[in-house]
């Protein structure tokens, strides 16, 4: 690099560049603006929360940042200079990740796909972006970003829209069906004396009973699709769970299943909830657990449902776990969607309603499951601090 006749100032006078020792000259060159800019950008890439990996035009791995090495679960040093084939043979990269890398490579090369979405073995969502072409001069730049939180927000918004639409439809249907049922019921009551004189009063009674049953079904459907605002009562969460256990343990015993409630007496957590609605959620989850266990058809082991209560800070957690058949990832992704069901004759409303009820109480509901192992639901609800002064 030629510096010409640049003059540098020093204490006591000036000196020419030619007077500078070669070692010091190398140090000056290291501070060239282009070098500083390159170093700055490399530092930025190193510290991104997205994984970055770069293959050069010869297919050799030229750069990988810290986050990408963490995602692959190997050290950066062991990745340097590898080709894609060597990367796929890396002994420390899991088979699951190798299959995903190979799939992304094929879709990029054969289908010119630049954006990929995938779920990892832990159920988290990732967005992979491929950048290549003339602007990359033959290089392939791959970025990987965790978009699980964005997906959760999107799913929540989508679900709320579906539940709102379901509420409007169900209200309209209920109105249209209830009106003729009311008219039919009135006419049957008018005709009842005539039927009695003919000795057919039993017919009138059956008709009225069935009309009332239809009305009850409509009411339940309407209430399920659009839960009313909670009518809250302050209650110890442990006593609520004990009551739910008492309501379900007989059915569990009849199905040969153990129902165990783990509760530390030192947790006197109070919650402000609509008792009827929260009971509806808990009973629904336990019933689903019983069904999942029943489908396993245990021969040499016993079905088990465990209910646990924990308090963390300002929240109380209710865990309901079973050793039933479990759920695959597709089922988990759609679990809280209205009308989604894996049961014959199921309505697909139970869990979507449970989701809405818990959200209306300022809480959250989450699920983890593994096929052949079991399922665990986690409900969190805010607790009431009775010692906090009123505002």
Quickly count the helices: 11
Major beta sheet summary: 5 strands, antiparallel
Which value, in Å, is the CA radius of gyration?
33 Å
Q: Can you tell me the CATH superfamily of the largest domain?
A: Histidine kinase-like ATPase, C-terminal domain
What is the fold-level CATH name, i.e. the topology of the largest domain? Answer: Heat Shock Protein 90
CATH architecture of the largest domain: 2-Layer Sandwich
Total beta-strand segments = 14
Instruction: Specify the overall morphology.
Output: elongated
Termini separation: 72 Å
Q: Tell me the structural class.
A: alpha+beta
Helix content: 40-55%
CATH top level of the largest domain is: Alpha Beta
Low-confidence runs (pLDDT<50, min 5 residues)? 1-20
Strand order of the largest sheet: 4-3-7-6-5
Strand content: 15-25%
Please, what is the average pLDDT?
Answer: 78
Features:
alpha+beta, Beta-Lactamase, 3 domains, 11 helices, 14 strands, elongated
Q: What this model shows, in words?
A:
With 391 residues, this protein is α+β, with helices and mostly antiparallel strands. The chain folds into three domains: 50-146, Beta-Lactamase, CATH 3.30.450.20; 153-225; 233-382, Heat Shock Protein 90, CATH 3.30.565.10. Helices cover 47% and strands 21% of the residues. It is built from eleven helices and 14 strands. The chain has a five-stranded antiparallel sheet with strand order 4-3-7-6-5, sandwiched between helices. It has a five-stranded mixed sheet with strand order 9-11-12-14-13, with helices on one face. Strand 1 and strand 2 (13-16) form a beta hairpin. Helix 9 packs antiparallel against helix 11 (350-360). The protein is elongated, with a radius of gyration of 33 Å.
